[in-house]
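To: structure subgroup
Subject: Chain for Friday's discussion

All,

I'm putting the inputs and outputs inline so they're searchable in the archive.
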Amino acid sequence: MKKIRFILALTLCALCAEAGAQTVTVADVEALPGETVAFTLNLAGGRADTYIAMQFDAQFPATGFSTTGDYSISSSWKNATSVIGSVDANGVATIPVSSAETITGSDVDGLLTVYFTVDNNVTIGSYEVTLKNLWFGYGTSSKDYLEDDVTFYVNVVERHTIVLDETSTTAPEAATGVNVRVKRTIKADVWSTICLPFDMTEAQVKSAFGNDVELADFIGYEMPGVNEETYISVNFDEASAIEANHPYLIKVSNPVSEFTVDNVDIDPEEEPTVAAAKRTKKQWSEFIGTYVANTEVPNLCLFLNDNKFYYSTGTTKMKGFRGYFDFYDALPEVEEELEAKIRLTFGSGSTAINEISAPKVLKGAVYNMNGQLIGTDIDINSLPKGVYMVDGKKVAIY
């Protein structure tokens, strides 16, 4: 029995040692020649609440890089200070950190950030930096050395690359002369909306989306009411280039998950919009873009999906770099017609998508004729044929 207990104790200790293994990671850094940038150490695992010191040697390339002496330390390590050593003739800078207090927690992103400068004459390319002899100190004598060196790369580039992601809830920031990588999914062979915070020339559009890409620029709507049919004709002109903060329709022949554009200026607007007015008919409409995910499409505005328009219920959300439509005074007329249509017309009246039904939402509580609550804010296309009570009124669906 004692033997069994002894074996179990060894096994548990081994598991504890493995779980407590500490690691330090550093992400690659991008820099322009002559630019001051930083690398940051992230700590995971290890002995929480016991570190009072840390030190390592940063092995830079022998020439072209220099430390600035500036640094920042996470608030998780209170009262910690450092003296950033300069890069010696061999490219090594010794960097110590000490404190009378310990790190709070064993996992700390941004534990230490060190600033350095890339010289103006450094050639474009990728340069390896290695953190050697990295140890943490405990008390006055104990040191815990990392088993492996930590390596990252400084990528010296002509232009910075900015990533714009359709799932990000942070708006893009202005930047001049940058390359952009846009993570924006676009289905093939259907019309989609797109809105970007930078210009794209015709050549850049074809390079990103293919030579057969189609772009359409919103110019307004009208309601001809032909043959007693109620519909909105949404009108577009053909476009070949993209203007910043200007939403468009786009159609591609091959699906897109992301695309890149070099050397552009990002200059986003808070609410990128194309407004169209036909003063003779007092019609006002807007094609409104968004750059952030989880944007709520206002109630009764229209959004496009798989070549169909849909009403928003006010809780509909869309990803970034897209757009939706607001037709204002046209909607009261369309709302009275359950079979109303929406058409897209391009150029000289050619109809590219004809008789697309816009699902109508029954706003408020919806009851069947037995007085049972079906739900609230329901799309009529989800209901079986029959008669319903909505806000005290009978509504027939057939």
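Points worth raising on Friday:
Helices lie at 2-19, 202-209, 331-335.
The chain has a mean pLDDT of 83.

D.
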